[in-house]
Amino acid sequence: MSFVQPINRENDLIAVLENYEEKIDHFYWFVDALQKDGIQNSWDARINKNGKDWSCKIYYQKLSTGMDIVGIEDSGTYGLTGVIPQNAEDVVSAIRTEDSNERLCYFSSSYWSRKATSAIGSRGRGKLVFIGASEESKIYFDSLRSSDSKYIFGTSYLDENKQIQTDVKEGEEAELERKKLFGNEIKPLSKFGTRVIIPSPKEQIKNSFEFEKINEFIQHTWWEILYKFNADISVENDGWLTKISSSPWLPFNSEDSTKTEDYPDIKLNQDSYKIKKMSFTYLGEKEIPELYEGISIQRSGMSVQHLDVSQLIGDQIGKKIIGYVELDEKLEAEMRLNEGPEHFSIMWNRIIPTQLKNVIKSKALEFAKKYNLIENEENGANNNQRKAEITIQKELNNIARQLGYSGIGQQTKKRKKHPRASDDPIRISVPDFETPSPTGRVNYGEFIKGAYAIPINATGESIKTLIKVSIEHNDNIFKLSNKELLFEEEVLLNEKTDIKIGWDKLEITDLFAPGQYYLISKMIAIETKKINKEISFQKGDEMYRTVSRTFYVEEEPKDTGAFRLQRAESNDKNKYFWWEPEGNSWTIYWNGKHPAIQKVADDEETLQAELRRISYLIAIAIFCSDDEILNEENKKPKFFTKDELDDSNFDDLLLSIFRKESKLIWDKFK
Q: How crowded is residue 320: how many other Cβ atoms within 10 Å of its Cβ?
């Protein structure tokens, strides 16, 4: 007696999806997997190789019956051609012919594929992703076939015996089945192509349409075909259609960075493998979305994986180098065999991938040396500036401690509100951040309220921005993954924008290791735009200083001092130095873009002197403000005398401030 070994396809499906989740390190991993598999299947099946008359639309729709669906619909493709099977034996017989035109039978099976060597997908896993995307573990599909103009409609689902069942109908019977399930809400296909319908999609997938996350993933994965072929890819959210435009990040052209280098026609080895093009760009102070960090390895118009340049060249400056690698047809075919089955990773330990990685490493080092990037990072102005900043910060906090001014962790009562620096017309605000304790401590089971950023644009002009809100640990120790600690959202920012990015309530669980954490908010330009004479941005510019808030998990904060110095960048001529309260301390910002700073920035001692001169004045002004509060409460001032505060006019008070600064600096150097 012999029999076919039963296979639990439900466990098989779970294992496949877990592999995707492992390879895709962000919260919306399922959405990224869905768009990548859906579009690659469609692009592989296009009739015209230049993409002419090809389109692919991914959409979310709520039907009148109350059912939610997600659809992937293309045109200008061959459709599901080949034998229309009546049973499993028909499918196996068609597959054994190894005819690539048996598209329907390959689609109706798992782990079988017979695509051309130039195709992107090749592992037959796409249907499993589609089925897994449905809470019902089911998909519907239909196709208008280019080979014979026949219309087919089918269903694939996980049955009670843990097997995947497929039923296919053709012609009039197929039309009736579609109408029976969807009425007139799902229209018949009018062009050659294929449609997959996912009923009851998972919540993460539905949310990705509302927040436009799926748009970002498509733009990233398919930047090459969007750029080269103007590929017609669109996303529709319950009737609202958006055509996906070319990525603002790749390719990164010389207008956006003067440190861009292309390396064409590089031979890999003696086997005539060739790299068509390798491109590197140094971003400098610019910021980009996390998806684009590193060097994108391209294959057949699709981004497979990004290589971290900092690991290639052994220097953190590599985090500021992005780019891409395009391969010739022969090398693409070889690399296809060395990809992970999810098409999100490459097996770099194999011979050809190792050779490719070595060439990329060599060229990355060549690029970094050409522009003196490694030397600049290790010995250049940035380190000098940070050293000067730390020195003055220590001096200010020593003065504050000697005078008895409290730093973080020593002051349990909130300060009286002081006037803040004038608001920039374009800014990012974290107005509602609140911890259970005024010291910033949060225990397990407690919540942080208002852990979100609000972007603001009061210029009257719109600008495309990227808002990043993340949580960072003081020692970079996490039990949480990046996808649980980062919000990234592209926002067309104008005066009507009303959006909060982050967490309304952030629960602190034991996944947060004890220690100090920062909520970091950044605003980055994703287009080059001149707003007015005073305000302009280059793509990748940080548009406003980084806004941070501090909290402490399961511990009281240490005394870190009353002052913190932080470099910021602003084109506002009114911004030389300014200061703002953050928690129970003050952050003094100095403008790295101010011409007076740029003139001294490369010399640590000169910069240090300027930081000292202005920061001391600011600290004394803050002391004066706090002493005035104490004086009003009939308490003894700490720095000024009661007479100075009571009897001085502005000129006398200003003279007193300069005298006190002079004495502090004198005592520092005596």
A: 20
Q: What pTM was estimated for this model as a whole?
A: 0.68
C-alpha atoms less than 13 angstroms from C-alpha of 574 in its C-beta half-sphere? 7
| Strand 463-473 relative to strand 486-493, pairing | antiparallel
Distance CA 305, CA 36 (A): 12
The domain 411-558 is placed in CATH, from the list 3.40.1280.10, 2.60.40.3880, 1.10.3720.10, 3.30.450.20, at 2.60.40.3880
Average confidence score pLDDT of the chain: 81
**In whole angstroms, how large is the CA radius of gyration of the chain?**
30
Q: Which residues contact 142 (CB under 8 A, 6 or more apart)?
A: 151, 152, 153, 154, 174, 178, 189, 194, 195, 197
Q: Selecting from 3.90.480.10, 3.30.565.10, 3.30.70.360, 3.40.1390.10, what CATH number does the domain 9-243 have?
A: 3.30.565.10
| Distance separating alpha carbons of residues 463 and 526, to the nearest angstrom | 8
3-state secondary structure 611-667: HHHHHHHHHHHHHHHHHHHHHHCCCCCCCCCHHHHHHCCHHHHHHHHHHHHHHHHHH
Helix locations, 324-476, DSSP H: 329-336, 351-370, 373-379, 381-403
Are the CB atoms for 40 and 302 separated by under 8 Å?
yes
The token duo for 436 is 């259970």
Q: Select from 261, 328, 266, 257 the least CA-distant residue to 298.
A: 328
Is 145 within 8 Å of 79 (Cβ atoms)?
Answer: yes
Residue 623: band (very low, low, confident or very high) from pLDDT cuts 50, 70, 90:
confident
- pLDDT exceeds 80 at position 410: no
Please give the Cα distance from 530 to 258 (Å, whole number). Answer: 19
Amino acid identity for residue 86 in this structure: Q
